[in-house]
Specification:
The protein is mainly α. 53% of the residues lie in helices and 11% in strands. The chain has one domain. The chain is globular and about 30 Å long.
Length: 55
Amino acid sequence: MVSVVQSQLDAYVSEFPKQDKITFADLQQEGYLSKRQVKEAQDNGIKIKASKVVK
């Protein structure tokens, strides 16, 4: 799941390079992650810090 979130985060950053703090809500709102994927990531302790995905 970490690799899925990281790849989607990388794609999001490519489209919105000036956005500083990116959240799961941002990724979901723009269609990069589904609601189910966000829930699964959060349930697994995955976080977004400084444009990197950490667990």
